[in-house]
């Protein structure tokens, strides 16, 4: 491998490019000074300020309500959508339509949803954000599960029926367990996407219940404080934990 | 073996759009029989299997199991099990839980399930693999698990879809014997679908040859080989020499060659006909034979040899086999003959 050693250089540069901003944010979150961009000694005081901040705490709670709710609903619906598509249609067009919410610009989806919600006279609040996140979350879950369905032996379900299982037993004992790695991966994807989703939430949320990204946005409008760095570092921690957990679970269930 | 029919298939038809998969198929399968459905791909044999298992609905016709209508039952209520070509083992369950799956669906007591799983693991020789996942097994072992999972249910009828096609040559030969042994041991009627004539010949008690959705002939392996009822069957099973001509008394009148003797088919063939002779039934004789030609080439296969003889007036070389090495060499003149009762007259 010595003769392609020079490939390490671009690799290194790429990683530096990707991770330096993250390192900066984590380091600056321990900055004791008042300025967010210049070092004023080590301190954890901004974490303290963050925990005292009721607006941030309420935003976090709102975000978690939306993320957990959207993950549960989108995972269930997205999985059923993928199974239904693979079982009852050979139409590539229909399959493409099911993935559309995941790929169209957030702004288009956000405006569309806002217009729809207004047209049917729905009040805006966490419930409308949750619905909006289900829309694109479902598409992501369906995409991941569809890919997995393509690898599954279609005769597994027939074999289950042949051995005496009815359709319901087959679904819960065979279909869901064999799709589990994809279902888990899809769920965690939706959770992390929903956690920091801004554009759609901004359009579909009510004024009384801002989600965390909206709270952060309104904070930075008046200048970046070191408190934001602490918040960003915490969000990083959560995202990394979830992504690593997702990988482990997928690996575990794949091995069995 | 008793001759009581277990399964009766009556004028079954099924088509997918313009493609006819089953065309008025009727046959009956006896209790404790090892029955093979043999034919090239696309002949309808797998469709027939899936109709019996309940995964396809026929357009018309009936399937009776011990005299009662089978088609009204959904697959999970039929006392029939299918061993899938892909084996369809559940990847997330261990070997023993794969095998127990069908018994759990019958809501049997845990003790009985454990005992029966253990017994069948012994039958297929996989007790030490009980806790393994399917992904950790070899092809032959997976096939045994699939078989164990099906026979542990003690079905009235076991259907096997190309059971040996996923195995390599050596394992396949072993499993042919193994399947035959197991079928005797468990006393279940086996219906195996295959495109491999050797496989069907070596395992089955009776064979149904299918082509284009129709059953052409149902017979024992020996009967099928010695008395094929059509050119397709003669060609599909073993090697054969065909002489085209016109049916005559005592054989077939072949242009440029004359009358070649053969057994009259029942019912008698008239008009355009073929005379079919198996290579091992043709002998090289001293003096005048039925045919005279030049030896084109000889091939030695250890136990036996193949000799190709070019006969004037017949386009393709006549092929014959003999024990040991060939007694003639290339370029020699050979006189060929066969007993009339060994040649079969077939409709052209």
Can you describe what's shown?
The complex is a heterodimer of chains A (256) and B (348). With 256 residues, chain A is mainly alpha-helical. In chain A, 77% of the residues lie in helices and 0% in strands. Chain A has eleven helices and no strands. In chain A, helix 3 runs antiparallel to helix 8 and helix 4 packs across helix 6. Chain A is globular and about 70 Å long. Chain B is an alpha+beta fold. Chain B folds into two domains: 222 residues, P-loop containing nucleotide triphosphate hydrolases (Rossmann fold), CATH 3.40.50.300; 109 residues, Nucleic acid-binding proteins (OB fold (Dihydrolipoamide Acetyltransferase, E2P)), CATH 2.40.50.140. The model of chain B has no long low-confidence stretch (mean pLDDT 88). Classes of the chains: A mainly alpha (256), B alpha+beta (348). Chains A and B meet through helix 7 and helix 8 of A and strand 6 and helix 2 of B.
Number of helical regions of chain B: 8
**CATH superfamily assignment of chain A?**
MetI-like
CATH class category label of the largest domain in chain B = Alpha Beta
CATH homologous superfamily caption of the largest domain in chain B: P-loop containing nucleotide triphosphate hydrolases
State the CATH class of chain A: Mainly Alpha
What percent of residues of chain B adopt helix (DSSP H or I)?
Answer: 10-25%
Reported by name, the CATH topology of the largest domain in chain B is Rossmann fold
Question: Sheet with the most strands of chain A?
Answer: none
CATH fold title of chain A = MetI-like fold
- Placed side by side, the strands forming the largest sheet of chain B appear as 6-7-8-3-9-10
Low-pLDDT residue intervals, each spanning 5 or more residues of chain B: none
